[in-house]
Here is the input.
Amino acid sequence: MLRGKNSMECKEIREKAEALGLNSEKKSKRDLIHAIQLSEGNVPCFRTKTDFCDQTHCCWRDDCLSPHWREGALLEEVKTELEGLIQTFADLKATTNKLAKKKKKNTSKQAWKKTQKNIESSWKEIGKALQKLTARF
Here is the structure.
């Protein structure tokens, strides 16, 4: 059994999920563990910012309650948000390309350039905010 390990590798988590008949494709570590927890009859609470856990038979209990996991939790949340933004940008570009086929190409290209400029500006602002934040450390 996997109990007693402090941290499980993603490969092990995917293997455990697949052994339980769960689809492990395109899921984050946290989402996979939540699915496994549900499948095993536990509350899907892995790393949900809870300091108390009554799920004594959960194989992630020690890892979840360790004081060090929170250090990476924010980074994981930011990564998930950025992945969502990347998908949003891809969807936006695809929509713009569809419009280009329906309308004049020049109008669509101009709209995309304007959108791209706004995206780049926003990205620079995010970068500045992250630099400001990390300068404190």
Notes: The CA atoms of residues 86 and 92 lie 10 Å apart. The two ends are 39 Å apart (CA to CA).
